[in-house]
Write a structure and sequence with these properties.
heterodimer; A: about 90 residues; alpha+beta; Alpha-Beta Plaits; two-stranded antiparallel sheet; 2 helices; 4 strands; B: about 500 residues; alpha/beta; TIM Barrel; Nucleotidyltransferase, domain 5; 2 domains; seven-stranded mixed beta sheet; five-stranded mixed beta sheet; 17 strands; about 35% helix; about 15% strand; globular
Amino acid sequence: MALEIIERCVNCRACLPLCPNRAIYEAQPHLLIDGDKCTECLGDFRDAQCAAICPIEGAILDELGEALNPPGSLTGIPPERWAAAQAAIAAR
Amino acid sequence: MDLPVIESKPSPSGACQAGGCGADNGRMAGAGLPDALRARVQDHPCYSEEAHHHFARMHVAVAPACNIQCHYCNRKYDCANESRPGVVSELLNPEQAVRKALAVAAAIPQMSVLGIAGPGDPLANPERTFATFRGLALKAPDIKLCVSTNGLALPDHVDELARHNIDHVTVTINCVDPEIGEQIYPWIFWQNRRIHGRAAAAILIERQQRGLEMLVARGILVKVNSVLIPGVNDRHLKEVSALVKAKGAFLHNVMPLIAEAAHGSFYGVMGQRTPTPVELKALQDECAGAMNMMRHCRQCRADAVGLLGEDRGAEFSLDKIAAMDIDHDAALAARLEWRAKILAELEAKRAAVSSQPAQLIRFQPPASRPAAEAVGRPVLMAVAAKDGRVASHFGHAKEFLVYQASSAGASLVGQRRADAYCSGAENCDDDAALLDRTLAALAGCEVVLCSRIGYEPWGRLAAAGISPNGEHAMEPIEQAVMAVWHEMLAAGKLAAGPAAAKRA
């Protein structure tokens, strides 16, 4: 079991010092998780630390490919509201 | 030559009669402070209104991580061409930041302050933040160090801040009530958990207040920043101001919310209204009875460089500084020379003021001086300024400083952004729309002071009830503002009572 950081990551590095297994490392174009080291914090913390501080929805996935922080869960912006705003901006 | 008599020293009595009690507070970093305190802020552009005309600062973007989410912030901080907090062009590591700071300090002798303000929270990135401070303190010991924090991690780092001789800390405090806080902060990261809602706000508020108390106990100057969010904390900020004042904060900076859908913040996408300049000023004036209010904040980027009204960051990208050949000793000498010159000028100005009888402090042409004091209502004037003088062409001004003139003198009460609309003849269609926006930004002002102005905007301003005035080019701002106010008074335009009908 291991988590994965995907391209939505903005490289804020907030997760980097929190990982109990030092599984997160700097890479281009964004931080990555070493799948061999990641334990999803099992036995160390109640919540996976990287996902508990990550500010970007959908940047960290579990091994099923599901976002630990799904759309709307961090910003409070309902996904349909977000989509409408993006469409309005694109139409300008 | 400067006319020293225009310095608006707070008068011991009667300062409140015309402009409200806030009229003099904007000047606190000038004549009104005890010497010891003035010495600590006189070259810090964010702590002294007077200093911001002459001294520059820079922010280095070494702190991308954050430990909370604010509804006015979007954490995709990468942005080259917008001027607002929380965005940067390129992230730096501490070593790059020190190199950049030294390059700026060599090219801009006015530079007196290095601040770390994100694009996340400096104290959520303590290793990077303190490594940057250590590096710069070794090589440019004359530069003041400064941080701006949300306060969550502040109590853990007060000792280290003190050890690094950090004399100025800004804490953003938007509320002291968790019920309001939960409408501003959706979550915090605290003790290895993400905490949501009111519980999160309660923890954040408690940490901010404790951090503030600890800083004050160590004699560190604290500025409190608050974002004015209409309908959320607008009625609450007066209480915040009184509380932080009681706890010993030095200065309160109430800033208008910035919220646009394109920025991707919660408030932007959800259509949260932003305050008008009139609402902002009203709140600042309300708070000013009890607290020193900052009126000259430009809400700058987390990698801003230069005087507050300008941004020279693009001149100092990593590529460009790599090619610079810098003589650090000569740069240090140039900075010290500049600082000594400006501080001597300001000192001379203050000495001239304090040698005058109190009633002559204000600039009043003897011929037009009215028999009774305190006649004439206060007037807002917009100034196209540079280095403390009326020195910009109207069409080239990127911002206007707004001064309130009254019988108590001239005081800065805010600033309004404007896009420089005059970009050459071929763009005149766009210019018309930009001029409309500038006119809207100047709402409430009755006079615009500038060094020059074109024929067309002259007519448009006059039609909007704003008098353009180009007769005081290159004069110090307060002198020019008060001269115009006295002209209006002598012409009978300032009958006491509510403002003239045209402002309605």
